[in-house]
Amino acid sequence: MEVSEMEMKQVYEALEKVENGADLIAAIKGEINTLNNEAKKHRTAGEKSAIKCCIKSCVKQAK
User: Fold this and answer.
1) Residue 55 to residues 3, 14, 29, 45: CA-CA distances in angstroms?
2) What percent of the chain is modeled with pLDDT above 90?
3) Which are the contacts of 22, defined by CB distance < 8 A and separation ≥ 6?
4) C-alpha–C-alpha distance, residues 51 and 2, integer Å
5) Could you identify which of 6, 37, 46, 52 might form a hypothetical disulfide with 10, taking C-beta atoms 3.0 to 4.6 angstroms apart as the criterion?
6) pLDDT of 15-35, one tens digit each?
């Protein structure tokens, strides 16, 4: 199997077999968590912007 075809589960299994593998796994999971949280902030901000835009548009149409 090529490395490019590995799933995360397989990556973690391979890392478990190397020295300091548990630390590497923790670092990867921590970084993924940080990136997911950052993406969530951007999605939430985008949703709020879209709602504000929609409300402004609706108010203009109502006048």
Assistant:
1) 48, 51, 39, 15
2) 51
3) 15, 16
4) 45
5) 6
6) 999 999 999 999 999 999 999
